[in-house]
Design a protein that fits this description.
The complex is a heterodimer of chains A (91) and B (309). In chain A, 45% of the residues lie in helices and 21% in strands. Chain A is of the alpha+beta class. Chain A has a four-stranded mixed sheet with strand order 2-1-3-4, with helices on both faces. The chains are: A alpha+beta (91), B alpha/beta (309). At the A-B interface, helix 1 and helix 2 of A face helix 3 of B.
Chain lengths: 91, 309
Amino acid sequence: MEFWHHTCSTCLKIEPQVKELTVKLQGKAKVIRLNVLESRENRRLAIQNGVMGTPTFKIYCRGVDIGEIIGEETLNDLHVKLAALVEKCMV
Amino acid sequence: MKQYDVVILGAGPAGLTAAIYASRAKLSTLIISGPMIGGQISQTYEVGNYPGFPEGITGPNLATKFKTQAEKFGAIFIDSEATAVDFNSKPYTVVFGGEKVETHTVIVAMGMLPKKLNIPGEDKLKGRGVFACATCDAVLYEDLNVAVIGGGDSAVQEALDLAKYASEVTIIHRRGTFKAEKYLIEKAKENPRIKFVMNSEALEIIGEKRVEEVKIRVNSTGEISTLKVEGVLIAIGWIPNTAIFQGQLDLDLNNYIISKSVFTEKPGIFIAGDLNDRVYRQVVTSCASGCIAALEAVNYLDTSNQEHR
């Protein structure tokens, strides 16, 4: 789950990469994007999940929090880190 | 190697305006955008004083409009950062992302970088409670306690923005008085959620996975205490983003490029934006200096006897 918002410049910058990743991970993982400015509910959900900056990616395996990626990452880093976490969940 | 009439370094209001003017003047124009299109305004929620937008406009939106306008005239954007330059022989060269290009003129508009505290915990907890932009992330500190470090306009403004959400905001300032504008200080003093810890310095940001507390020393007595917070916003000012110009351009003791108006000591190398303005630093003044730099680049190319033209 990517916690983001529309005035976070890093989030906007990596948006195409996240969309590309969504396609790449199809069948293995579901990518959900949650705009923390959209509603109070979203904001509270982010805070409850310990999100303190945008973008933050939280990775859940069958509902359990197994890792996070915070801040700007290159597409490659994001891929590598996410792939490792997706692997971890498959085991 | 690709060759351009002008390479613009930085895509804040100055670089983007320079790109509009240079490309409209039919110069082959490459803009190496740096970390963010829009520069500092990419982190500004509302730009309320840029002429032509009476209803206000978000920083990222304004930056996108500038970029679209430059692209319309043919400017080429590269989403990368310049890592080295050679201004000691012509044509000048610029290196970015493993590529190298030649250019007859350069407009340096790389702006400023946020100053770091350089204390333990600052890097480790970045994005985990340590942040630099209330406009971006204030909502995530709803009902939490946050420390703001700094005493200038941006520190007090960030504290006011944070106080809309946070339950308590503590401004930690190493001096006994503020540099910030009086009306901002008055607003902060009137806000019951904002507290002040004066004459004190942050020594360490403590936390395992997230910020838990900040260690503070009172300068006069040396007394050390900790403040329990979930967030630490650092707003201690800015430094010129000029590291790659060491040995290429004359820098002063504060690492500003020595210049007269938009001219550096090297022919064909111009500067614009915050690097060229220590006083006003508005979007509109940055745009103006970007425009002047581009017009001077056009003028330079017109009057020089370069064979390619």
